User: Fold this.
Amino acid sequence: MSGVLSREWLLSETPASRAHAAWVRRYRGWLQFRTNGLAMVGLVTVAIMIVASLAAPLLALQNPSAQDLAGRLAPPSAAHWFGTDELGRDIYSRILFGGRVTLGMVVSVVLLVAPLGLAVGSVAGYLGGMADRVLMRVTDVFLAFPRLVLALAFVAALKPGITSAIIAIALTAWPPYARLARADTLTVRSSDFIAAVRLAGAGSGRIILRHIVPLCLSSVIVRVTLDMSGIILTAAALGFLGMGAQPPMPEWGTMIASSRAFILDQWWVPTIPGIAIFVASLAFNLLGDGMRDVLDPRQR
Amino acid sequence: MLTRRNLLAASAATMAAPAVPTGAHAATPKGVAVMVKQIDDIVSFDPAESYEFTNNEVDANCYRRLVRPDAEDSTKIAGDLAETYDVSPDGLTFTFRLRHDAKFESGNPVTANDAAFSLHRVVKLNKTPGFIITQFGFNADNVEKMVRALDDYTLEIKLPQAQATSFVLYCLTANVGSVVDKATVLANQTNGDLGNGWMKTHSAGAGPYKLTSWQASDHVIADANPNSVEKGVMSRVVIRHVADPSAQLLTLQKGDADIARDLGADQLKTIAGNKSLTVNASPQGTSMYIAMNQSMAELAKPQVHQAIKWAIDYDAIANNITPDTWSVCQAFLPNALPGALKDNPFRKDIAKAKQLLADAGLPDGFAVSMDYISHSPDGDIAQAIQADLAAVGIKVQLLPGEQKQVITKTRARQHQLAMLVWGTDYFDPNSNAQAWCENPDDSDASKLKILAWRSHFVDKELTAESQAAVRELDPAKRIALYQTMQRQFMERAPFAMLLQKNAVAVLGKGVSGFHVGPMPDYTKYAQITKA
Amino acid sequence: MLAGSFASIPLTLFGLTLVTFLIGRVMPIDPVIAIAGDHAPPDVIAAVREQLGLDKPLFVQFWIYLLNLLHGDLGRSVMTSHPVTADIAQFFPATLELATTAMIIAIVVGIPLGVIAAERQGSRFDHVVRVVSLAGQSVPVFVLGLVCLLVFYVKLGIAPGTGQLDVAYEGLVPRVTGMLVLDAAIAGDWDSFWDALAHLAQPALVLAYFSMAYITRMTRAFMIESLAGEYIITARAKGLSASRILWRHAFGNIAVRLVTVLALAYAGLLEGAVITETVFSWPGLGLYLTVSLLNADMNAVLGATLVVGLVYLVLNLLADVLYRLLDPRVA
Assistant:
C-alpha cells in the first residue's frame, strides 16, 4: 500500500475514494501544466510577486511615504535602486508596496465578482423561465458598457479612491462569469445525476449550491486567472486617469499619472511602474493560458 | 455652427496665402502665432457671461472697454475707448467721453449707445460675472436710468451710493465691462436673450482681433479685426489645447508652437540655459490657501489656526516644488494687486506650533481631513503639507478630488481642511477682501456665500472694515485700511495663505512681445512678433 | 430566437440610460458649477439650477430626458455650448477613423501571423508570435502610447506630435465625413492628407497592437483545431499544395467564426480608444467622454455613453448571434 500523497498514490489508476480521485486529477493536471514552459514562467513570476508583496516591509529599503523634496527625481543609484520620484520618495520601495495595492485590488475584485457571477449564472441557468430572462437582461445591461467607461462613470459617481475603483471594476467584470456559469449550468441541468438528486428530495437551493456550482468552478477559475491581467490593466488605467487609487498611495497606475510630466528627462519615474504593470499582467496571462490548457481547453 | 468650410472661407479672406510647408513639420506659418494652452475651461465668450481664464483672455483681445489699467503703471487707470473721463467730487457721477474713431469688427462705429447697451445687458442677463456691475446697486429696473448715453459719444454712469472711485473704475476695466456692438448683437438675438446664445461662440467687439472659431477642448482661432484702430502684428492667433505641460514643452521645442502657457517648474528647469527660448513671468492675482472649516471643534480654536500657519515650511514648497511658478504670499492680497502687504511673517517653527497646540488644549495634536484638487502641483504641495503638519502632531488624511468636485464640497461647507486656489474677480482689493473677510450672514440663506461663509468664518470687525473700505473715497486711507485688515487677518483668520501664482509664458525662438497680464482680462496678443 | 435577441436592444438601451442617468445624478459634482462657475452669486446659481431643471424630483427629470431622447434631443453640452447630437457628430468620426484604421492594420498583420504560427506550431516562430501577442494583451495602453511618443516623436523625430493635424493645416480641409484623412483625399488636398495620415499613424498603431494580439491568438487557436481535422488529412492525401490546404481549406473553414472574433475585437477597440485618445489628444468620442465625466457635463456623458453603448451592444449581439448560428457545437 503506497503512502498518501506519494507519487505512486497520486498516479493511481484505481482511486480508492472521491477525494483520492480528485487528487489524482489534480496531480495529472499539474504534470501537464509543468510541460508548458511559458506557463511555468508565469507561475514563478506570480509566485515571486506574491512573496515580494507580502514581504514588502522586509524587502523595501525605505519608507515608501518618506519625502525628500531636495532629492526629488534622482536617477537610480546605490541608495535608491530605481531612483526617486517627484517628491523624493524611493521608487523601489513604492513598487514593492504598490504590488500589495495591486494584488490586493485584484483579490478584492475576484472575491466580489466570482461569487456574484456564479450565483446569478447558476440560478438563472437552473431555474430557467422568467428568472432566467430577467437575470440575463440585467447581465446584458452591464455587458453593454465598455468596461473602462462604466468603471470610470461609477468611480466618478462614488468618489475617486481605491474602494470605489474596486467596486466599479467588480461591477463591470461580473457579467462574463454569470454567462459562463449559466452555460455550464445549462449543460448539466438535464443530466441524470441531477435528476436523481432531485428525486431524492433535494430543494433547488441545495442542488444549485452543492451540485451545480462545483461543476462550474473550473471554467470560472480559468476565467479568473485570464481576467486578472485585465483587472490589473483596468485598475492601472483608472489610476492613470486619476480616478483610482489616490496619491500618496503607491498604486502603479497612479504613480504613472503623477509622474507623467517627467517622461522626457526623468523617464524612469513613470516607466518603471509601467514595466511593473506589464510584468504582472503578462505573468497572469501566461499562468491563465497554462491553466486553461489544462482545465478547460474549450474556453478562449 | 462653425464648420470647416466656413473656416476655409475665412482663412482665405484674411490671409494672403502663406506658403504651406510640405512634408515634415516645419515652423509655424508666418503671420500666425500659435499658442499651446489648457483651454478646457471655456464655457462662453459672451463678456456678460464669461468668467474663466481662457475666455476672459480671448475676449480681452476681441473687445475694448471704457478704461484700462495704464500700461506703464497698473495702479493708474487710463482711457481705452473713452478718451477722457470725469468723476464728480461726491464720487457719484462718472462721465466718459468716447473717442470718435473706434469701429467694431462689423464696421459700425463705437458709440455711447453701444457702451450703455453693453452695461444694461450685463445687468439684465445677470449671469455669473454680472455681480461685478450689479454690486454698485444696479438692477434691471434702474440700470437704464443710471447708465445712459447723453449723446453719441458721451456716457454717464450715476451710482446709487458712493463707492471708492478706483474700485468702480477697476471694475469697468474687467472683461464684463467690454463694449459690444449693439446692432450686431440684437440682430442675432433669439427669444429676447439679448444675443446671449449667439455671443457664446461669436464676438462683436472693437478689439484688434475677432473670434473666428472655437472647438471645445481643441482650439480657438482669432483673426485680425480689419476695422480696429489698434492693429495686431500677427494676422491670426491660434490657441491649441494641449493638456500636458510636458507635451506643451515638446511642441514648443519642435517649433510646432510659438508660445507655451502652462509650463510647470520642472519643465522650466529643463529649459534653463536655453538661450533661444524666452521666459516671461508675471505675478497674478491668484492665491493658494488652506481653509479651516470652523464647524469642526478643533479648527474653531484660534490657537489652532496659528499653529497650522507656523507649522508649514513655505520656503521649501516654493523653492523645491514650484520655483518660478508660485511664490510665497501670506496675505490675502497677492503682490500684483493694489494695497498688497508684501510681508511674509510666517515660517516653519515646530516648537512654536506645538506650543500653540498645547495652549489650545491639544498637546497631542488631532486628526483631520484635507480636500484638495488632484492635479499638479497641488497634489505634491498637499503631500508636503501633510508631512509638515504631521511633524507637529496633526494627522492629515488627504482627500484628493477633481476640481469641480472639491468646489462642490466646499460650497456645501462639508470640508474640514481644504487646500484651494482663488483668483481675484477684478483688479481691486475689494474682491479678495470681500471674499475672505465678509460674512454678514452665516446661515444657508445668506446672499453672500464666498470664502469666509464657506468656512463659517464670522468676524464682525473685519466684515465692517471691508464694507467701509469699499466706500472710502480717499485713496490713501483706503490702502491703509486694507493693510490693517491684512494684518488682522494674519493674526486670527482661519485661513493659511500660502502662495501666489506667477504666470509663465515661454516664447519660442524669435518670438517676442508677449506678457501675461496680472489678470487674464489684461493679457494682450497685439504685440506678439515673430522674427 | 434571432428576433428575440434584436428585440432586446431597446430594453437593454433603456437599462443603459437608466443606469447612466442615475450615475450622473449621484455624482458628487454640482453641474450648476460647471455652467455658472465658483464665483457666481447665489441668485445666479438658483437661476441656473432652475434653468437646468435640477430643482425637480429625480423621476421627473428622467422622464423629461427620455421624452427628449425619443425626439432625438440629447440636450445641450455645458462644455461646448452645442447640442450633444452635434458634438457627437463632430467627435465620433475621429474615433471611427482611429478604430477602423487600427482594425485594418490588426487584421492585415494579425491573421496571417496567426495562420502561419498555427501551421508551424511548436516552432520558434510560433513561440515568438505567442509571446508577442501575450505581451500585447498585457501592456497598459497608456504606457505604450507614452513610450512611443517619447521614442518616435521626441528622440527620433520621425513621428509628429499629438492631435490630428499640424497647426499649419488647421481648418483647410472641408468636412465631409469627419474623418480627416478621407476628407483630405476627397478634397484633393494632398499636403493635408499626408499630415493627417502621419498624425493618425502612431495612435492607430498603438491601438492596433492590442487588437492584433487578440486576433492573432484567436486565429491561431482556431487554425490549430482546424488543421487537426480529418478532411485536412484527406486533402493532403489527395496531394493538394500546402498553401492551398492552409488558406483555402483550413482557413476557409474558420473564416466565418473569425468574423465573430473581429466583431468583438472592434468593440474592444472602442474601449481602448478612450485611453489612446487621452494620450494622443485625439479629438474623438473617448476624449469627449472622459472630459465630460470630469466636468460633470451630464448631457454629454449620457449622450456619449449611449452612443458608445449602442455600438458596443450591436457588435456584441452580432458576435453572439453569429457564434450561435455558425458553431454547430453550441446548443
Observations:
- The radius of gyration of chain A is 23 Å.
- The mean pLDDT of chain A is 82.
- DSSP finds 13 helices and no strands in chain A.
